[in-house]
Amino acid sequence: MGSLNKIVKQQQQTLTKPEENISEEVAQLVGFVVGEEEFAVPILSIQEIIKPIEWTRVPFTPDYVLGVFNLRGNVLPLIDLRIKFGISANDIDENTRFIVMKIKNEDVAFIIDRLTSTLRIKKKNILPPPDTYSNEEDIIEGVGRMDDGRIITILKVDNLIKREEIAPNNDHTSTNL
Amino acid sequence: MDEIQELLEDFLVEAFEMIEEMDQDLIELENNPDDLDLLNKIFRVAHTIKGSGSFLNFDKLTRLTHHMEAVLDKARKGELTITPDIMDVILESIDAMKGILEYIRDNGEDSAPDIDIEPIVVKLDAIVNGGATQEQNENKKKEEKPRIVGNINLDEITLENADDIDLDSLSPEELDAVLEHLVELRNSAPKKVGNINLDEITLENADEIDFDSLTPEEADVVLEHLVELRNKGDKSSESSKESKDDKKEENKDNSNTEKKENLSDSNEKKEVAPKKQALTQEQKKKEVKKAISSLAEQTIRVDVKRLDQLMNLIGELVLAKNRLIKIYNDVEERYEGEKFLEELNQVVSSISIVTTDLQIAVMKTRMLPIGKVFNKFPRLVRDLSRELGKKVKLIIEGEDTELDKSIIEEIGDPLVHMIRNSVDHGIEPPEERKAKGKPEEGTVWLRAYNEGNMIVIEIKDDGRGMDPEVLKRKAVEKGVITESEAANMNDKEAFMLIFKPGFSTAAKVTSVSGRGVGMDVVKTNIEKLNGIIEVDSIPGQGTTFKLKIPLTLAIIQALLVVSQEDLFAVPLSNVIETVRIVEEDIYMIEGKSVLKLREEVLPLVNMADIFEIEKVLEPEKYLYVVILGLGATKIGLIVDRFIGQEEIVIKSLGEFLKGLPGIAGATIRGDGRVTLIVDVGTLMKLAKETHNRKIVTDSLNEAKKKKEKPSDYTVMLVDDSAMDRKIMRGALEELGVNLLEAKDGVEALQLLKSNDVDAMLIDIEMPRMDGYTLAQEIRKYNKYRKLPLIAVTSRATKSDRVRGVEVGMNEYITKPYTKEYLQNVVRRNLGL
Fold first, then answer.
1. Does residue B139 form part of some domain?
2. Residue A75 and residue B666: Cβ atoms within 8 Å?
3. Which pick of B28, B138, B510, B637 has the fewest CB atoms within 10 Å?
4. A167/B656 CB distance under 8 A
5. How far is the C-alpha of B551 from the C-alpha of B358, rounded, in Å?
6. pLDDT tens for each residue of B325-335
């Protein structure tokens, strides 16, 4: 058993090592369009990408929380990035997708208008967000300049949704009777 | 190391259980000091804890139990009568034992610096020495011959050096012997029990043992030993049954005398009068066999986590079952009369039954008798009544009633509060009771029984009861309620005041109650379990509390209701009833809407107002109301439709959405959609707020549209043929209604969502989405439930018409049609 574990460990090391080396210089991202703008998130933060399915509204949530839906027996929150970013929401069409990402160990789905492609971008080409960007919520990781000249906003996945914003701990304490 | 840890955990679980039981037995003993069976049982427990404690090297614990055992032993032999004072000392030592055990649980050793056992030991010794004889304490150690197997001297092997043995070098027999020896070593502690040398007892001479002369714990050990021997015997191939019998005959003479001596020897020491063996050898043999077989009955301890996991899996299964039933129902409509349906039906039913049985079976594994909680109350009542100088008898009934483990854990604290409350506030001091002509001794009943899907726990006392008027006055004084609120209160509502925070009726604050927090805590805890509290009281005669609690928390029965477009699941345990009312049944009291239901006046709230759901439905003649009850409150909730009762599995909404007011979680229904589960506790609070600011009758009419003339109405024409649309348009323009046109189902759906449509004419055969599918899609929305859909088609066979009805078409017009016919149909459907 011990030797088998060793082999597995070695395999894992050889598998992950070069990856680490690469990621020191190159970030792998998935690009998508929301409204008019192209965004990207790290490929490893994405659990899966699915076609839109029916969801259930949940009361007392901000308008960008559309509700919850059933993904193979799990109940996932659904966030509309268009509303979150202050862009008027388009209708759902054949390009619309749900991107399921892991945020603080919880699966959360985001509606996006269209997927573009996976991207490899050199880390040195990623610059911190310029001051002109409104980034109060700290949801922008940086701005990537692609080789073809495109500018892509890279999102900080962990900050895309915050518990305090969604369900502030306002105890609905009862007024007397 | 792990083994010891495991052993320790087992010991702790067992010890806590035994002590709890002992507590109860001791209280019972105080009432029946001569009950020898009970004394023996208590003695046995103390003895077992002492034995296991000493094996695990808990010296402090052993010392304490040893001295306690000495007292019990004397009582058992009739040399000592248990007086309340002696009982106090025994109970004190039990508390110390509990303390030490808790310390062991937390720290792994028994130094327990906070607990000083010496004064207790002195007291215990004083009790023992007060009697006639000194307790003898001999530890007779028998010399054993070295046992040698192969090259190994077993006596040289101890648990400590076991690791040094080179197992690879041993022959199989040697290995077996060594392992057996080690197991024996580990179990050796219990074997020292009593004065019997177990090694001398074999299956062959078992018949000669005089069980009557043994103390119960000795008998237990002997039986255990015999079971062990029998199991070994089964394994060994060499001893066939016949040879065993032969041996038995041979050995009888030798062993008989020897063993008899040994046993009678022990009898004298234990001072148990050797009884004459009225039973024949044959009967005794049977008895031993019976005892052995009952010992072989097994239970296992299972980690609760595993049961939880199992319960989760069952939950998934229940969801799948619901889905299967839904699919079957869909298919049934579609393929009525077909042969395979019958088979499908059988499979679905059997899966459904098995799933339900499975769920009940697993639920049962998580159930514990409520006696586990009840057990600590005799002690509580005894201590409390002594402290308060009252005489109180506690009568417990239904302790076998079973409840989910998680609920058992939650229910303890509220019950402690309530029992304390009954003894402290309810039962009067003896003089007062005497003056009132009641017996001096007050009685508190603690009763548990099942009622449907709920368990009811009843706490009743025959004390002074509560006066609703006094309660109201106090509440007004303390500012808990206003004068006018007090005036509108009936007696039951007044009793509920005791659950308000900051309310306490005790004139003087004692150490046990009167701080005004207790009953508030009870209410909070019971609400956490989705339970309901009921109070009834007659001044001078006593008070009854009823706690109604759902049996389990993970899978629940729910009532599915629709508010506007949204579906909600309401835990059935909180639904008191459902009623259909008309708007005229709604009254206004102090500017708030209420429902008069029989004797009661209930606050009435529209569910859509609570959850701020957009109102899209026109009000109908009848209103549907769910009467919700939680803890001490009741409320009427207006919904738009009842779907029915269903078994649902509670799932969390996840880290980001959990804790939303009014929402307990979600469940996945048969159609795969998510339905939110209402959290009755917070919903009640929200409802109260809503009730204060929203008048139900106003809210009901928000969605009412005013339509009088034809131009107020809009009709949509859905047909892929431009000519057909033109014909329809020609006919309907004459009616004066507004018209919309769509080329296919997809376009029609989009138009419908952005326009206010009052009726639709639908062609069946269209590209992209046909008429049947369109109708089906439209009927999925609650707000289009009543929208008239009229099929206009050349498909005229019977099956086409049936299909049309199935998907929700209201009318079926076959082409060609006359202009007047079309106009009539549309006019009728619009109600013009």
1. no
2. yes
3. B138
4. yes
5. 16
6. 888 888 887 78
B179 confidence band (pLDDT: 50, 70, 90): low
Report chain A residues whose CB lies below 8 A from the CB of B658.
Answer: 167
Write out the DSSP string of B511-547.
Answer: SSS-SS-HHHHHHHHHHHTT-EEEEEEETTTEEEEEE
CB-based contacts of A12, cutoff 8 Å, min separation 6: none
Q: Per-residue pLDDT tens for B190-240?
A: 444 455 556 566 665 655 566 566 666 666 666 666 666 666 655 444 444
CB pairs under 8 A between A and B: 96
B606 alpha-carbon distance from chain centroid: 32
- Asked if B729 contacts B717 with a C-beta cutoff of 8 angstroms, the reply is yes
Q: Which domains does chain A have, with CATH numbers?
A: 26-162 (2.40.50.180)
Which domain-ending residue is among B77, B98, B130?
B130
Give me A74's structure tokens: 């799990």
Q: Are residues B816 and B743 in the same domain?
A: yes
Q: Both B526 and B673 in a single domain?
A: no
Which of B272, B296, B320 is where one domain is finished? B296
B381 and B287 in a common domain: no
Best of B674, B680, B685, B782 to substitute, by most chain A Cβ atoms within 10 angstroms, is B674
* Nearest-by-Cβ selection for A177 from B485, B674, B676: B485
pLDDT more than 70, % of chain A: 75
Predicted confidence (pLDDT) per residue in B499-556, tens digit: 877 676 544 444 444 444 467 778 878 877 778 888 888 888 889 998 888 776 667 8
pLDDT of residue A10: 66
Task: Check if B701 is active-site.
Answer: no
Which residue does chain A place closest to B746, by CA atoms?
Answer: A93
Q: Kindly determine whether residue B689 and residue A167, on different chains, have CB atoms separated by under 8 Å.
A: no
B402 with B533, same domain: the answer is yes
Euclidean distance between CA atoms B26 and B30, whole angstroms:
6
The verdict on B344 and B214 lying in the same domain is no
Decide if B674 and A75 are in contact by the 8 Å CB cutoff.
yes
Q: Does residue B413 carry a pLDDT above 90?
A: no
What integer pLDDT is reported at residue A157 of this predicted model?
85
A61 touches chain B (CB under 8 A): yes
Instruction: Identify whether B69 is a catalytic site residue.
Output: yes
Please indicate if any CB of chain B lies within 8 Å of the CB of A93: no
* Residue whose C-alpha is closest to residue B43's, from B16, B68, B64, B20: B68
Query: Could you give the number of structural domains in chain B?
Result: 6
Determine whether the interchain pair B611/A172 forms a contact, defined as Cβ–Cβ distance below 8 Å.
Answer: no
Measured torsion, CA atoms of residues B500, B501, B503, B509, in degrees rounded to the nearest 10: 140
Alpha carbon B474 to its chain centroid, in Å, reads 36
- pLDDT of B133 > 60? The answer is no
Cα first-last separation, chain A: 67
Active-site pick, B20, B30, B47, B402: B47
Matching residue, tokens 């649902």:
B648
* Domain span holding position B275: 192-296
The pLDDT assigned to B293 comes to 54
pLDDT digits (tens, 9 = 90+) for B17-65: 788 777 778 877 777 777 777 778 888 778 778 777 777 778 888 888 8
pTM here is 0.52
